């Protein structure tokens, strides 16, 4: 049981890395908390559902469509909301309120548009049965989701550390004012990062029906809580630390389900409290400030 | 002078009181207060019930209104329903608003035990009779609270009796000895798990419980839990959860390739369309479940037949995303019982309404079955026999009745683990 829980937790954690990655990227670059992150994930899930139902599109292809669509969608949303928000005296705090409102609107519109029922994509689309690793069987769908998550982490890493735009993005993450003073087009860099954050949320949504069983318009809130725990553990503002946070979250959740099943829903809160008490800057705290 | 002033004040007071007095004795409509959840974890059971109730209201108004015996005439119905978003705190506020601001004549709770639980003390405090649709948790009912009646679902301690009897009787003969019990920790499934545990552990029972675990109701991933259950080698697995739990469990089970000889879930037989949509007919094959009004050919004495109701539902709510199922029938049945009570009550006083509902106990057949209440207002007449899902080969399913023997229409089919 222990080995299975650890292995499953690691793969599940990979998925939660993807869930938290976009949220952390946005916070890292703009110092705003996108509380509607889970709702964009939900929209990605519904996009994949409709693309599969109406056009028979495979989730991997849907992931590409959703990535491109959400990236393009994110840029005007950025220019509509974020520059104004950042002119305020306490943009971090106000972002909580603004994106909470946006979250409510997105959820309500989705409930009106899609209905409140559960929706899923058949599991067999990603493969039937399980794959054996170290003597333990893991669902193929999980491995697909885990592999896409790992690829997304690698993509973000490449973007941040091996592209010119990534270097500029890291400069903005270190100091927005200094970056602006050196002539970096901060809004352009931030808008792309914001679009990327939404795109990553959308892609994680594509695999949500396989990881959560089904999706509903109301799923965003719980996803947000888990994603927030992941990025706080891994360090706020450090996208690479999200991988560590995801792994810790996934393994802890599976261990809780195995040994303390009834209490597993309090795990995100426990992790948050533990990290805030012991290491408030997160496990990779220094890396965030000097990336 | 003083005498004239007093007379004037008296006349004014009488004028002020007159409309109220008339309103109290002669209402122009019957206001039904209700809450429902368009979002959140309970939307899947709340919206069908709300739509079912709404269908009854529309049907009744189209026929000229509901017969109100104390007035000797028909009155139109006005349904006031607020969205609680599956949030008990919001539900509590809205229920108070219905009672104190909207001054509804009839108070109907949201579907399910979790959201009904917040309505019980509010109804009791305001001495309003709570027309409980599907809040079945046994702790909702007490001898000192006359302000609740459960209309469209049996109380949860009754639900698992046939399942337990089957396991101890036919199941044991067919080699089922070890049972795994997995349940969501909420009022509805918790009390069912407790009842099952007591039934299965009763003296002389041939059944051993090898896995007994509760999980939070918002659990959406069962992969590790399924692996842990499999390691205890159970012959039967009983998974008790809400719609979302059942979907996640069955999908994870299908993904894992694991099979259990006997598998039971609650909502496969209650919200079958919703389950088929998400799990697929193949994913539900041979799953044991409760049989309810959706599948039992109950002969209703009032309202439409199941087939007629289904047709009316599909006509009224095409493309709404809310599936026809057990809760839609529950909402409609609730309306019918309310209508019957208004047609029999001596007055619109809440305890007279209660008396009128109790007058139907043991005498009324609804789409949900035999309507009978115990002294606390809990529903004990409706039954939940054990059924099994059988794919129809066209992407849909049907449910065969397995136990008790007097209602059985099919023999149990066991999976090969």
What's the order of the H and E elements of chain A? HHHHEEHHHHHHHHH
Strand segment tally of chain A: 2
On the 0 to 100 scale, the average pLDDT of chain B is: 89
The number of distinct helices of chain A, counting runs of at least 4 residues, comes to: 13
Indicate the mean pLDDT of chain A. 88
Coarse shape of chain A: globular
The helix content of chain A, as a percent range, equals over 70%
Strand content of chain A: under 5%
Total helical elements of chain B: 14
SS strand fraction of chain B:
15-25%
Distance between the termini of chain B: 97 Å
The major β-sheet of chain B equals: 5 strands, parallel
- Through-space gap between termini of chain A: 39 Å
Total strand count of chain B, please? 16
Strands of the biggest beta sheet of chain B: in what spatial order?
Answer: 4-1-5-6-7
Q: What is the helix fraction of residues of chain B, given as a range? A: 40-55%
- H-E string of chain B: HEHEEEHEHHEEHEHEHEHEHHEHHHEEEE
Secondary structure layout:
The complex is a heterodimer of chains A (291) and B (417).
Chain A: H1 2-30, H2 37-55, H3 59-86, H4 91-114, E1 130-133, E2 136-139, H5 140-162, H6 164-174, H7 176-181, H8 186-206, H9 208-212, H10 220-234, H11 241-259, H12 267-278, H13 285-289
Antiparallel strand pairs in A: 1-2
Helix pairs in contact in A: 1-5, 1-8, 1-10, 1-11, 2-3, 2-4, 2-8, 2-10, 3-8, 5-6, 6-8, 10-11, 10-12
Chain B: H1 2-25, E1 30-36, H2 43-62, E2 66-68, E3 73-75, E4 77-83, H3 88-100, E5 106-108, H4 113-117, H5 119-125, E6 130-132, E7 148-150, H6 161-173, E8 178-184, H7 187-201, E9 208-215, H8 223-230, E10 236-240, H9 243-256, E11 262-265, H10 272-279, H11 281-284, E12 288-290, H12 306-316, H13 326-344, H14 350-360, E13 364-366, E14 369-371, E15 386-391, E16 397-403
Parallel strand pairs in B: 1-4, 1-5, 5-6, 6-7, 8-9, 8-10, 10-11
Antiparallel strand pairs in B: 2-3, 12-15, 13-14, 15-16
């Amino acid at each position: 049981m222990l080995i299975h829980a650890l292995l499953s937790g690691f793969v599940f954690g990979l998925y939660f890395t993807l869930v938290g990655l976009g949220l952390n990227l946005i916070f890292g670059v703009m110092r705003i908390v996108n509380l509607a992150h889970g709702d964009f994930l939900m929209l990605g899930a519904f996009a994949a559902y409709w693309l599969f139902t109406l056009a028979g599109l495979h989730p991997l292809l849907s992931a590409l469509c959703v990535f491109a669509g959400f990236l393009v969608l994110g840029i005007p949303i950025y220019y509509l909301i974020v520059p104004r928000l950042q002119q305020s005296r306490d943009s971090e705090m106000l972002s909580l309120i603004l994106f909470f409102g946006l979250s409510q609107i997105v959820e309500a519109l989705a409930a009106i548009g899609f209905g409140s029922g559960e929706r899923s994509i058949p599991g067999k689309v990603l493969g039937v049965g399980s794959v054996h690793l170290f003597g333990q069987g893991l669902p193929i769908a999980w491995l697909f989701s885990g592999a896409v998550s790992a690829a997304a982490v690698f993509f973000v890493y490449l973007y941040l550390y091996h592209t010119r735009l990534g270097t500029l993005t890291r400069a903005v993450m270190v100091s927005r004012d200094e970056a602006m003073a050196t002539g970096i087009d901060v809004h352009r860099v931030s808008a792309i990062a914001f679009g990327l954050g939404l795109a990553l949320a959308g892609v994680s949504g594509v695999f949500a029906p396989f990881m959560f069983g089904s999706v509903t318009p109301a799923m965003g809130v719980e996803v947000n809580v888990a994603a927030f725990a992941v990025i706080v553990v891994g360090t706020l503002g450090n996208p690479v630390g999200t991988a560590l946070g995801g792994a810790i979250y996934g393994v802890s959740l599976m261990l809780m389900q195995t040994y303390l099943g009834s209490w597993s829903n309090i795990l995100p809160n426990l992790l948050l409290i533990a990290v805030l008490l012991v290491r408030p800057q997160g496990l990779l705290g220094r890396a965030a400030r000097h990336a | 002078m003083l005498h004239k002033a007093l007379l004037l004040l008296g006349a004014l007071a009488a004028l002020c009181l007159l409309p109220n007095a008339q309103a109290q004795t002669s209402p122009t409509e019957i206001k039904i207060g209700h809450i429902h959840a368009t979002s959140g974890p309970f939307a899947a059971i709340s919206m069908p019930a709300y739509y079912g109730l709404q269908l009854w209201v529309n049907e009744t108004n189209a026929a000229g209104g509901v017969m109100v015996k104390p007035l000797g005439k028909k009155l139109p119905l006005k349904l006031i329903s607020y969205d609680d978003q599956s949030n008990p705190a919001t539900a509590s506020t809205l229920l108070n608003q219905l009672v104190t601001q909207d001054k509804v004549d009839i108070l109907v709770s949201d579907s399910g035990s979790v959201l009904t639980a917040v309505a019980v003390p509010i109804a009791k405090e305001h001495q309003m009779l709570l027309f409980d649709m599907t809040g079945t948790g046994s702790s909702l009912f007490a001898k000192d609270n006359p302000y609740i009646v459960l209309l469209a679902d049996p109380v949860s301690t009754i639900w698992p009796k046939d399942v337990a009897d089957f396991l101890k009787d036919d199941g044991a003969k067919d080699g089922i000895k070890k049972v795994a019990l997995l349940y969501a920790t909420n009022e509805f499934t918790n009390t069912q798990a407790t009842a099952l545990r007591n039934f299965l552990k009763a003296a002389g029972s041939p059944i051993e419980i090898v896995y007994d675990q509760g999980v939070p109701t918002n659990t959406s991933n069962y992969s590790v839990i399924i692996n842990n259950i499999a390691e205890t080698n159970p012959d039967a697995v009983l998974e008790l959860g809400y719609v979302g739990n059942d979907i996640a469990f069955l999908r994870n089970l299908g993904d894992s390739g694991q099979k259990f000889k006997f598998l039971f879930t609650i909502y496969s037989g209650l919200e079958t369309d919703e389950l088929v949509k998400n799990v697929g007919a193949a994913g539900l094959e041979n799953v044991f479940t409760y049989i309810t009004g959706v599948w039992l050919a109950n002969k209703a004495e009032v309202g439409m037949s199941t087939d007629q109701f289904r047709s009316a539902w599909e006509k009224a709510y095409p493309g709404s995303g809310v599936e026809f199922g057990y809760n839609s029938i529950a909402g409609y049945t609730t309306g019918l019982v309310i209508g019957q009570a208004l047609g029999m009550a001596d007055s619109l006083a809440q305890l007279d309404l209660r008396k009128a509902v109790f007058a139907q106990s043991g005498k009324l057949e609804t789409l949900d079955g035999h309507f009978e209440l115990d002294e606390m207002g809990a529903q004990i007449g409706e039954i939940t026999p054990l059924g099994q899902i059988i794919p129809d080969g066209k992407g849909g399913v049907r449910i065969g009745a397995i136990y008790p023997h007097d209602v059985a229409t099919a023999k149990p089919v066991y999976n090969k683990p």
